[in-house]
Amino acid sequence: METLRALVAVSALAAVGIMSPGPDFVVVSYTAMTGARRRAGWVASGVVVGNAMWAAAALLGFSVLLSLAPALFVVFKIAGALYLVWLGAKLIRGARTPLATYADEGQGSGPFASWARGFVTTLANPKAAVFYASVLTAALPSSPASGLVIGTVAAVVLVATVSFTVVVVVLSTPRASALIRRHKAFVEAAFGSILAGFGLVRRLMAVRELPSSMA
Q1: Which end of the chain is more exposed for a tag (fewer CB within 10 A), N or C?
Q2: What pLDDT score does 106 carry?
Q3: pTM of the model
Q4: In a domain? residue 138
Q5: What is the rounded distance in angstroms from the CA atom of residue 43 to the CA atom of residue 93?
Q6: Helix (H, G, I), strand (E, B), or coil: what is residue 107?
Q7: Which residues, 6 or more positions from 46, have their beta carbon under 8 angstroms from its beta carbon?
Q8: Transmembrane segments in this chain: where (predicted)?
Q9: Is residue 215 a part of any domain in this protein?
Q10: Coil, helix or strand for 95?
Q11: Quick check: 14 and 131 in contact, CB under 8 A?
C-alpha cells in the first residue's frame, strides 16, 4: 500500500512537471503542428527516454554527484542552454521558408534524427534534473527498494508517453496544421524565440553560478 501511494504521488507530480511549458514541450508541439505526426511521435519518444534517464539518474544519486561538483553542473547547464539557443535560432532563421508537405516529409529528418532532437532537448534541460531530484526526494523513502525504483521509472515513462501522445494527436490535426501553414512565419518565429529565450535566461543564470575563478 505504501509503495502504491508513493507511485501515485510520483505520477501526479511527474504529470505536472512534464506538461509544464518547457523546451521539450515546445519541440514536440511545434513538430506536431507542422502536420508531421509520425516525426512528432519520434521526437516525443526521445523526450520520454530523456525523462526516464533523468528520473533514473536522480534515483541513482547522480544529482548528489552534481551537488558535490557544482562547477561541473554549471558547465552542463551552460552547454544545454547554448543548445536551446541554437535550436531556437534555427527555427527563427527558417521561419520564412515554405513548410514541407506530406509528400516532402520523407526527405526531411529521419526517425533517428527526430528521436535525437527530442532526447537531446530533454537532456539539455537541467530543470528536468532538478525537478526529478526534488520530486523523488519528496515522494519516495530515503532508501527505496529496487522494485520501487523500477516502478518509479516505469511510472515516469507511462505518464510522459500518455501526455505527449495526447499532444501529438491533438496538435497534428488538419486544423492545427492549416493554422501553422497560414501563419508559419509568425508561429515558427514565436516557437524559436521561446526556445532561444529559455536558453538565454538559463545561460545567464548558470553564468552567475560559476565560481569567480571560472567566470
Answers
A1: N
A2: 41
A3: 0.71
A4: yes
A5: 21
A6: helix
A7: 114, 115, 116, 117, 118, 119, 120, 121, 122
A8: 6-28, 40-62, 68-89, 124-142, 148-173, 185-205
A9: no
A10: coil
A11: no
